[in-house]
Design goal:
By secondary structure, the protein is an alpha/beta fold. Helix content is 47%, strand content 14%. Strands 1, 2, 3, 4, 8, 13 and 14 form a seven-stranded parallel β-sheet that branches. Strands 6-5-7-9 form a four-stranded antiparallel β-sheet.
């Protein structure tokens, strides 16, 4: 992930297409973006997190026609469902960009004019097989039998032979190759980078940026008989999102503070648009390029590709209603290596969140607070962390954990951040059993007892802090019970927590009054009926 020296960080999810309701894949991307944005805020960065919806194009027009509805009403409904899901998942975005916003139209027209003046747009003839579901022309060799689309195997590509405006993508072959060579981190992970490089090496072809016989979209400024291609329109939604509410919608206003975006976080199916078309369009318009593009993998269910056709879709609302937002956020970022394809299996989901959040983390905190209440008067024991010797292995592990987790977040290795942190918690459970504080108390070894309990409390605190971008509500509950007044769901309160101090083992102050021990995560109990279904 590219992060500039400035103390600002801007990132985007895709602008999700509103031809269908939000699904688990959309939720996966947005959870990851939210976790990264939250981590940058912990570090003291000024953060702009952008999401939104892409609302033009033939798919929308056809879907509205099939439902005998006005397309704008359809867009309002589905865009509202995305927004509602993000709130339900406790996702905090800063800007929500909609491509039907009139301010967006102004930005697109100004950008088009810059590219037109550069001489990179011309009228030509487009012939080929077109997948409406992908909103993309396909090479015949890339289609399945009977010209079905590999991305939408229940949709046949349609033959098109029409006049279109084209963007001179071929003009930017050398510049894109130089970009990928000089900035190898521009596309992540490495497997995605290799895919793009191989595609570009085959030779870039100019691509169509307009459609005819399409009403639902932005008219081509100098030829209203054409409508701008949905991708040329949608990518600029990232720029529109940078406008402050009071700004006149001009490129200069949009770009003055937050551009360039540090990171576009997307699914690998739209990598080419973001890693090839988008940089070339920006180069044509004379604009700086974003810091990078990260294309994550696909999700499967029980090892099978998720498909509405075979009926194995995952309803994110259902997952949240049954298991809670924290469990959903944790499972998908901990269990799946971001960048690779990953699988959802309900039995594994339940086992993981019960083991990690209820048993290892929740029970550890609960039993430790009760012992501190019983043996130390519900205050943090009067221990100087510097006095703990090498036998206190939790200290040695904790002292390196902050740096290791920082590297994991910066490289979007959320699974590593979770696994490294949970390893410390598991060490705590072993440590408490090995040192047996209850025995130390009976033997009158109060000093050693307090050292043991301090080590465990501090390790739990550190784990809660480092996991707060992923499970902010649970982390808030832990911090509250340890005696802090902080809410990890309120970005403005994070400024009260010094990042370097709180990510370092030994932060907990002696004598701090602790809260009452309460369960932070209740085990998920599944009935026989639910399992069999």
């Amino acid at each position: 992930m590219s992060c500039s020296d400035r103390r600002r960080f801007a990132l985007t999810t895709p602008l999700y297409y509103v031809n269908a309701r939000p699904h688990i894949g959309s939720a996966y991307t947005t959870i990851a973006a939210d976790a990264l944005a939250r981590y940058q805020r912990l570090k003291g960065y000024e953060v702009l997190s952008i999401t939104g919806t892409d609302e033009h194009g033939q798919k929308i027009q056809r879907t509205a026609e099939e439902q005998n509805r006005d397309p704008h009403a359809l867009c309002n409904e589905i865009s509202g469902e995305f927004d509602a899901l993000w709130h339900k998942l406790n996702i905090h975005y800063d800007r929500y960009s909609r491509t039907t916003d009139p301010r967006h139209t102004a930005i697109v027209k100004e950008f088009f004019a810059r590219v037109w003046d550069k001489g990179d747009i011309y009228l030509g003839q487009q012939k080929g097989w077109y997948c409406v579901a992908c909103e993309e022309f396909k090479e015949e060799r890339d289609l399945l039998a009977d010209r079905y689309c590999p991305m939408h195997p229940n949709k046949q590509a349609e033959w098109r032979d029409e006049a279109n405006y084209f963007f001179r993508l071929s003009n930017y072959q050398a510049q894109l190759e130089a970009l990928f060579e000089e900035n190898p981190d521009f596309i992540q992970p490495a497997s995605r980078r290799n895919e793009v490089i191989n595609f570009v090496k085959q030779g870039l072809q100019d691509f169509s940026i307009s459609r005819v016989q399409l009403d639902w979209g932005i008219p081509v400024p100098n030829d209203p008989s054409h409508t701008l291609y949905v991708w040329f329109d949608a990518l600029l939604g990232y720029v529109t999102a940078l406008l402050d509410p009071e700004d006149e919608p001009t490129l200069d206003n949009a770009l003055r503070h937050w551009w360039p975006i540090d990171l576009h976080l997307i699914g690998k199916d739209i990598l080419r648009f973001h890693a090839v078309y988008w940089p070339a369009m920006l180069l044509s318009a004379g604009l700086p390029l974003p810091g990078g593009v990260f294309g994550h993998g696909f999700l499967t269910k029980d090892g099978t590709k998720i498909s509405k056709t075979i009926g194995n879709t995952i309803d994110p609302h259902d997952l949240i209603d049954r298991f809670g937002a924290e469990a959903v956020r944790y499972y998908f970022l901990k269990e799946i290596e971001f960048g690779r394809d990953g699988d959802y299996n309900e039995e594994r989901f339940i086992n993981i969140v019960n083991a990690d959040l209820a048993n290892d983390l929740g029970n550890l905190l609960n039993r430790t607070l009760k012992m501190v209440d019983k043996y130390c008067g519900s205050c943090v024991p009067a221990v100087n962390p510097a006095d703990l010797d090498g036998s206190f292995t939790l200290k040695a592990t904790g002292e390196t954990l902050g740096e290791r987790v920082d590297r994991a977040y910066q490289t979007l290795e959320f699974h590593t951040a979770c696994n490294s942190t949970l390893a410390l918690i598991r060490d705590c459970n072993k440590f408490i059993d090995d040192r047996a504080p209850w025995t130390l108390f009976k033997q009158g070894e109060q000093v050693e007892l307090e050292r043991v309990l301090y080590s465990i409390l501090e390790s739990v605190r550190l784990a809660a802090y480092l996991l707060s971008p992923i499970i902010p509500t649970l982390s808030t509950a832990i911090y509250t019970q340890i005696g802090f007044e902080v809410d990890f769901n309120q970005p403005e309160t994070l400024a009260t927590l010094d990042f370097d101090r709180h990510r370092t083992w030994g932060c907990l102050a002696a004598g701090q009054t602790l809260g009452q021990a309460q369960p932070i995560f209740r085990r998920i109990e599944i009935t026989t009926t639910e399992v069999s279904s």
